[in-house]
Amino acid sequence: MFSQVTAEPVARLIDEFNRLPGIGPKTAQRLTYFLLRAPSEQAHALAEALIRMKERTVFCSICFNITEMDPCAVCQDPERDRRTICVVEEPLDVLALERTRTYKGLYHVLHGAISPVDGIGPEELRIRELLSRVDREKIGEVLLATNPNLEGGATAMYVHSLLRPLGVRVTRLAYGLPVGGDLEYADEVTLTRALEGRREM
Ligand SMILES: [Zn+2]
After folding, report:
1. Ligand 1 centroid from CA 36, angstroms
2. Using an 8 Å Cβ cutoff, are 140 and 93 in contact?
3. Is 47 exposed, middle or buried (0-12, 13-18, 19+ CB in 10 A)?
4. In 3-state terms, what secondary structure has residue 24?
5. Model confidence at 186: pLDDT above 90
6. DSSP secondary structure string, 111-166?
7. Strand, coil or helix: 41
8. pTM, rounded to two decimals
9. How far is the CA of 69 from the centre of ligand 1 (A)?
10. How far is the CA of 191 from the centre of ligand 1 (A)?
11. Per residue in 48-104, pLDDT tens?
12. Residue 77 CA to ligand 1 centre (angstroms)
C-alpha cells in the first residue's frame, strides 16, 4: 500500500512491523523511520537478534518453556523443588515469576488459555503433557498461575477438574493481582504476595 510513494524496502519493513501484535500502521511507520535514521549497527543488531532468537531457541520437551538447551535450565536444576509444578500461560510468565526469586519449583507452560471466542480449545494447549507429568513424576502440588482474567480463570477450572482424580494438591495464585491483567506485567512485590498467599482450589 506504500509502494507508490515509498521505496519498496521501506514499505516492506512497515508491512512486517504491522503484522506484529499491538503494532498498528502508525507505530509500524514510526519504527521503520526510526531504523532508517539509526546507525547501521543498530539495524544489524536487531536483525541478528531476530535470527538468533529463531535459530537458537527450542521448546523444552518437559515444561515447554523456551530454551537454548533441552531440557531447559530450570528442569535440569538439581536445586529445584521437583514436587511442585507452576502452570502458566506463556513463557514470559515464567520470567515474571523467576524475577520474584520466591518460587523454587518447576514450571509447565500451556502456551495459551482456553478461549472459545478465539477458537482455542483445551487440545491447543499443553494440558495432556501436564497430566502425564503429574502422573509420572510424583508431583505433590500443582500451582495454577494462569492470568487473572476470564480465559485464565476458565483454564484453571478446567485443568483443576482434570487434576482432581490424580489426587494431587492444586493451588491457585492469590488475588491481589490486577484482575483482567496479565501476569507478565505484574510487579515483583504483587507477584511475591500472590505466590505466598496461594490457596487450595
Ligand atoms: Zn523445562
Report:
1. 39
2. no
3. exposed
4. coil
5. no
6. SS--BGGGTB-GGGTTHHHHHHHHHHTT--EEEE---SSHHHHHHHHHHHHHHGGG
7. helix
8. 0.77
9. 9
10. 21
11. 999 999 999 999 999 999 999 999 999 999 999 999 999 999 999 999 999 999 999
12. 10
C-alpha distances (whole Å) from 68 to each of 60, 132, 167 are 9, 24, 34
Mean local confidence (pLDDT), 153-165: 95
The single residue listed with the C-alpha cell 524475577 is 99
Burial per residue of 100-110, b for 16 or more beta-carbon CB atoms within 10 angstroms, e otherwise: beebebbbbbb
- Beta carbons of 181 and 148 less than 8 angstroms apart: yes
E strands, the chain, are: 58-59, 66-67, 81-88, 105-109, 141-144, 169-172, 199-200
Measured in Å, residue 173 CA sits from the centre of ligand 1 at 21
CB-side exposure of 35: number of CA atoms within 13 Å?
A: 18
For residue 68, how far is its CA from the centre of ligand 1 (angstroms)? 10
C-alpha of residue 14 to centroid of ligand 1, in Å: 35
DSSP 78: T
Kindly give the distance from the C-alpha atom of residue 93 to the centroid of ligand 1, in angstroms, as a whole number: 14
71: preceding bond cis by omega (within 30 degrees): yes
Report the relative pairing of strands 199-200 and 169-172 from DSSP bridges. Answer: antiparallel
3 state SS of 43: helix
